[in-house]
Write a structure and sequence with these properties.
The protein is an alpha/beta fold. The protein has one domain: Nucleoside phosphorylase domain (Rossmann fold). The radius of gyration is 17 Å and the shape is globular.
């Protein structure tokens, strides 16, 4: 992998990939043929990565819904609304048959923090927005076509501004029985994508099963990051 530095990159990427943490960016950097720095700052970091004939803009957004939305907005401003957005990295597993290491490709995304039921909206629905944000059929198909040694499956992903532990997971399962996994950014990125009519999908690997503490997450974050990145990079060739 070669590394260069530049202030402006004019080439349009195949896709824009948003991760929350440096740990989730490392596998992409390791697999890339070349890396060019675009933006490095306190708000977020963006790099241009080349994989054969495909390229991505890789953004490290920071953790949380606002950081995810900010990164998505900045990406659309820089590259336009025609470039697909992909949320990648780790997630907590909620489904009864979900296992650590599996990759969940979003069929739809839900905001776990929104509750305006007093005015007739569905739980998870922001007024003026759909109750769920459906993933791009093309992006979802490209990710699900992966033939990895680990499980890659479709599922609903929920997002909110808290790390989900056992007690919280129980309530989420009751409120959103269809949810397979939870993270802290994807639904916010999906809302920005929806507002700008940008194709979007979330590709998240399970790092933990929402245990009482964060130990399981810390043990498996590197493996989850690698699996998510592997599926995303493989999907690029199908776009």
């Amino acid at each position: 992998m070669s590394t260069d530095t530049a202030c402006v990159v004019t080439a349009t990427p195949t896709a824009i990939v948003i991760v929350a943490m440096d740990d989730e960016a490392v596998p992409f950097l390791d697999m890339a043929d070349s890396v060019t720095e675009i933006v490095a700052g306190a708000a977020f970091t963006a790099r241009s990565l080349l994989f054969g004939q495909r390229s991505i803009a890789l953004i490290v957004a920071g953790i949380g819904m606002v950081n995810g939305a900010h990164a998505a907005t900045q990406a659309i401003v820089r590259w336009g609304a025609h470039v697909p957005l992909i949320s990648a990295g780790s997630a907590g597993g909620l489904g009864g048959d979900i296992r650590v290491g599996e990759v969940i490709v979003s069929s739809a995304l839900v905001n776990l923090d929104a509750d305006v039921r007093a005015f007739g909206y569905a739980l998870g629905q922001v007024p003026g927005m759909p109750a769920e944000y459906e993933a791009s059929v093309e992006l979802r198909g490209a990710a699900l076509a992966d033939s990895s040694t680990f499980v890659v499956r479709s599922g609903v992903i929920g997002s909110g501004d808290r790390f989900v532990t056992t007690d919280v997971a129980h309530q989420i399962r009751q409120d959103f029985p269809a949810i397979s996994a939870v993270d802290m950014e994807s639904a916010a990125i999906a809302q920005i994508a929806f507002r700008h009519d940008v194709p979007f999908v979330s590709v998240r690997a399970i790092s933990d099963l929402c245990a009482p503490d964060g130990d399981e997450f810390l043990t498996h974050i590197d493996d989850a990051a690698r699996n998510s990145a592997a599926v995303v990079v493989a999907a690029l060739a199908r776009l």
